[in-house]
Specification:
alpha+beta; GmrSD_C; single chain; signal; three-stranded antiparallel β-sheet
């Protein structure tokens, strides 16, 4: 897998160009969009299939803020559904080897995002024992060492948090699609552990990376993931993403 060295907007193309941006037509919404991030969903959303998108997705991969804005405008705007029933297990076993390359997803992402990697002997260059992370969320450099008391220094973040996804359409996806979402490299990033904990399950309306140079890339990935899996955004979330895109060159 290719290394991800993004520190800002211009690095987006290198990462996303290797990803297949797919999605489906969003379901039609009825009535006016809710202004409350905690209101329940008034209408149900059909379980989507994952299909190939048009040139709009290809334009997003070039780092074109206007293309990202256009993709954002295809997402339904609704309030959050209740969190009732959310469990991490609803998105499959954590860090499955979904691509059947012999390595679990966590190690795949560490291998992609870290430099100067050293692998644990006997794992066929699978388990990352140590490496260096140029953290996109804080702009700092973190020296990673695998261990009971050290591994949490670098965590794998779901850019669209699974709880947020659950409340914005993922509970209506099939189990297989939720597992795909939880292990999709487009939604995953090795980051500073404490900063990831601070983010929790926030969306763009409540949390953005401290490193302002990475925020355009960050919200672009959120839009792409939500388009790919037919998730929606709240009105406050859409406004926050739109405002951020206005700062992107």
């Amino acid at each position: 897998m290719a290394h991800h060295r993004s520190a800002g907007w211009l690095a987006l193309a290198a990462f996303v160009a290797a990803s297949v941006l797919v999605g489906c037509d969003p379901p039609a919404t009825t009535g006016s969009p809710s202004t409350s991030a905690s209101s329940s969903v008034a209408t149900s959303t059909p379980t989507p299939s994952i299909t190939q998108t048009s040139a709009a997705g290809e334009a997003v991969a070039t780092g074109d803020a206007e293309a990202v804005r256009q993709l954002l405008n295809t997402l339904p705007v609704k309030g959050r559904a209740p969190k009732t029933g959310y469990e991490r297990s609803e998105f499959g076993t954590a860090w499955k080897d979904v691509d059947h390359n012999g390595c679990d997803t966590r190690n795949d992402i560490l291998a992609r995002d870290l430099t100067d990697k050293v692998y644990k002997p006997g794992t066929h260059d699978c388990v990352v024992a140590s490496g260096v992370l140029h953290d996109p969320y804080t702009g700092t450099t973190i020296h990673f060492t695998r261990g009971q008391n050290t591994s949490t220094a670098v965590q794998i973040d779901h850019i669209v948090a699974l709880s947020d996804a659950w409340q914005k359409g993922a509970q209506q996806l099939s189990g297989d699609l939720r597992t795909q979402l939880a292990n999709d490299p487009l939604d995953l990033l090795a980051v500073d552990g404490p900063t990831n904990q601070q983010k929790s399950d926030g969306d763009a309306a409540t949390w953005l990376p401290p490193n302002k140079a990475f925020r355009c890339t960050y919200v672009t990935h959120q839009v792409q993931v939500k388009a790919k899996y037919s998730l929606w955004v709240t009105q406050a979330e859409k406004a926050a993403i739109t405002n951020q895109l206005g700062t992107c060159s």
